[in-house]
Amino acid sequence: MAAGEAEARVFLEVRRRLRSALLIVGEPKEGGMPMDLTVRPFSLRLATSEGCTEIRLPAEVRLVPSSCRGLQYVAGDGLHLRLQAQAEFSTKPISIFNRSSEAQECCTFYCQSCGEVIIKDRRLLRVLPLPSDNWGALVEDWCCHPDPFANKPLHPKENDCFIGDSFFLVNLRSNLWQEPKANTKVICKRCKVVLGATVSSETTKFYMTEVIIQPSERSFSIIPRSQFVQSVVAECLVELASARSTFRYTIQGQDGKVYILLWLLNLDSLVAESLKCSKQIKKFPLFEDTLKSDSSSSCNAVKVLYQPCIKSRNEKLASLWEGDISVHSLTLPSATCLELLLILSRSNAMLPPSLRQMNSFQLLPSTRITASDH
User: Fold this and answer.
1) Which residues contact 311 (CB under 8 A, 6 or more apart)?
2) Rounded Cα gap, residues 343 and 307, in angstroms
3) What are the tens digits of pLDDT across the range 172-217?
4) Radius of gyration of the chain (CA)
5) Who wins on pLDDT, 5 or 359?
6) HEC per residue, the chain
7) Counting beta carbons within 10 angstroms of the beta carbon of residue 94, is it exposed (0 to 12), middle (13 to 18) or buried (19 or more)?
8) Are 212 and 110 in contact, with CB atoms under 8 Å apart?
9) Residues 6 or more apart from 347 whose CB is under 8 A from it?
10) pLDDT for 25-40, tens place per residue?
11) Does residue 363 contact residue 357 with C-beta atoms inside 8 Å?
12) CA 125 to chain centre
């Protein structure tokens, strides 16, 4: 099949549950030579008059060459084809806080950005999920008598950690602040990033995107910031979609301002791409912010549509979403909302052009987030 020149970009997206794959071989550049593409179960072979290049598929992916269909040339992208595919469900997303194994252990809370110790050697005896934000209103609807929880807010005790959609609640009475005031920001002493906010004189909220919790015997491990943020947000989306069948989200800052609208498409994508092929065997690199040509891994992706809401963009749509009870809100520090928007934008730019938009939304794939601009 004529596909383009030797240095072609190859993009692969596999849907595990559907057992299907979309394969795109990059558009030929002007002056490029003819290329023959051969699809094999575990690799792709691209041949020109000057030689051959073999691109190995991710180890967990197997294509069915005889199922090739939907072959078409798309201007700006190149050759599109769909095939049956099998991809193993690899390990589950690594939880930022392992509720079962780390309970009962001594844990240390670190600032994710700089590694500063926030809480040292805290033994957590209870690690419990919080109910949804509107649980109080639901109790009022269900009860025929006065709300028994009206004056009993859910505050953790000294050895508790309560887990919300995007935050942890812990008791800091004996830790850092002598007389903390409610609704004040908690800021890292070293790097000055916003870690959370005080909820009461004893309870502090830490955002999952800003804090790493690890067993005290384990040393602090540095995780690239953008990789950490997208992993945490993707994990939040996966858990909310699974537990509450929620698929539309507003990402807002702690000041209540909406920064991003997200529409979840699917949770079962596996994405890989190879930017260039030369006359040697190449592997698909990990599809992340920095592509590593020596990596043979693929990337689990949560695929979303997104709309930015900064600089007065999409104000009417954001207002409609905020008034819709089927839309769930995730609150993060304002700076992290902007980081996430940058991550989505960069991820979107790495997609083949024809996959970057759907209606007015943008679409991107990343390490746990694949997004499309709307």
Assistant:
1) none
2) 13
3) 864 544 455 667 899 999 999 999 999 888 899 999 999 999 888 8
4) 24
5) 359
6) CECCCCCCCEEEEEECCCCEEEEEEECCCCCCCCCEEEECCCEEEEEECCEEEEEECCCCEEEEEEEEEEEEEECCCEEEEEEEEEECCCCCCCCCCCHHHHCCCEEEEEECCCCCEEEEEEECCEEEECCCCCHHHHHHHHCCCCCCCCCCCCCCCCCEEEECCCEEEEECCCCCCCCCCCCCEEECCCCCCEEEEECCCCEEEEECCCEEEEECCCCCCCCCHHHHHHHHHHHHHHHHHHHHCCCEEEEECCCCCEEEEEEEEEEEEEEEEECCCCCCCEECCCCCCCCCCCCCCCEEEEEEEEEECCCCCCHHHHHHHHCCCCEEEEECCHHHHHHHHHHHHHHHHCCCHHHCEECCEEEECCCCCEEEEC
7) exposed
8) yes
9) 364, 365, 366, 369, 370, 371
10) 876 554 456 778 899 9
11) yes
12) 29
Query: Average pLDDT, stretch 2-28?
Result: 77
State what percent of residues in the chain have pLDDT above 90.
40
User: Rounded to an integer, what distance in angstroms lies between the CA atom of residue 189 and that of residue 65?
Assistant: 57
**What does the pLDDT read at residue 137?**
58
Return contacts of 37-45, CB within 8 angstroms, 24+ apart: 37/1, 37/3, 37/79, 39/63, 39/65, 39/68, 39/81, 39/83, 40/65, 41/65, 44/10
Which residues have a Cβ under 8 Å from the Cβ of 146 and sit 6 or more positions away?
A: none
Q: Which residues pair with 314 in a beta bridge?
A: none
Provide the whole-model pTM: 0.82
**By C-alpha distance, which of 172, 223, 178, 226 is closest to 199?**
172
**Alpha carbons 132 and 153: distance in angstroms, whole number:** 13
Q: Which residues contact 364 (CB under 8 A, 6 or more apart)?
A: 304, 306, 344, 345, 347, 348, 350, 351, 356, 370, 371, 372, 373
